[in-house]
Write a structure and sequence with these properties.
Helix content is about 35%, strand content about 20%. The chain has about 200 residues and is of the alpha/beta class.
Length: about 200
C-alpha cells in the first residue's frame, strides 16, 4: 500500500462518484476506498462494481470500508473491529494511537489519523502532525502506514512521506476538486519515492 489512497464521500463530490474516480484514475490514482456505508447494500454493491470496472484497466484496487467486500477481496476496517480481521486478499485498518496499533494482527496496512486539521471533519483531533505520525510509524513496526486527514497539498504529502508513511489518504481535496485529475497528479508526484542520481 503506497502512493495515494482516495476515500469516497459522495456528499462532498463535485460530480457523480464514477465520473470523479475516472478522472482521478486519469491523474494516476490506483487505490480507492469505497465508503458510502449509508447506502442500501444492493446500491453500494452496484457502485462497487462500477468503480472496480474503472480501476481494472490500470491494475487499480477497490477497497470496501467495512467487513463486507461487496463481491471483491479487499476491505478497510475500523479500529473497533472485527478482531481478528476476516481473511481477504487485502485488509486495512484505521488507527489513531498506540493502543489501537498494538491490537493489529494480520492486517496488510493501516491508516493513521488525524495527521492534519481537516475540513471534512471539523474539530477532529488534535492533529498528530508529521512528528506524531513518525512516532506511530515506528510503533507500526514495518507495517505500511498511510497518513490520513487534512492532506490537501503536495507539501503535506512530502512531509508525510518524510515521516515514514508509505502513502497518504485523501478525500475532500479530490472530492471537491474542479479538476480531480490535476489534483491527483500533483499528489501522486509528491508521493513518489525520490530518485537517487549517480
Amino acid at each position: 500500500m503506497n502512493g495515494i489512497l482516495l476515500l469516497t464521500d459522495r456528499r462532498q463530490a463535485a460530480r457523480p462518484l464514477p465520473e470523479l474516480v475516472a478522472a482521478a484514475v486519469a491523474g494516476g490514482l490506483r487505490q480507492v476506498v469505497l465508503r458510502e456505508r449509508d447506502l442500501p447494500r444492493a446500491e453500494r454493491a452496484a457502485l462497487a462494481d462500477r468503480l472496480r470496472g474503472i480501476l481494472a484497466p490500470v491494475g487499480g484496487t477497490l477497497i470496501v470500508a467495512g467487513p463486507d467486500p461487496l463481491g471483491g477481496d479487499a476491505v478497510h476496517l475500523s479500529a473497533a473491529g472485527p478482531y481478528p480481521p476476516p481473511a481477504f486478499g487485502l485488509v486495512g485498518r484505521s488507527c489513531h494511537d498506540e493502543a489501537e496499533l498494538s491490537r493489529l494482527t494480520t492486517e496488510d496496512y493501516v491508516t493513521v489519523s488525524p495527521v492534519f486539521v481537516t475540513a471534512s471533519k471539523p474539530g477532529y483531533g488534535p492533529p498528530l502532525g508529521p512528528a506524531g505520525l513518525a512516532r506511530l510509524v515506528r510503533v507500526a513496526a514495518g507495517r505500511p502506514v498511510v497518513a490520513l486527514a487534512g492532506v490537501t497539498t503536495a507539501e503535506q504529502v512530502a512531509a508525510c512521506r518524510a515521516a515514514g508513511a508509505a502513502g497518504v489518504a485523501v478525500m475532500g481535496a479530490v472530492m471537491r476538486a474542479v479538476d480531480p485529475a490535476a489534483v491527483v497528479a500533483e499528489l501522486v508526484a509528491a508521493a513518489a519515492p525520490a530518485e537517487v542520481s549517480c
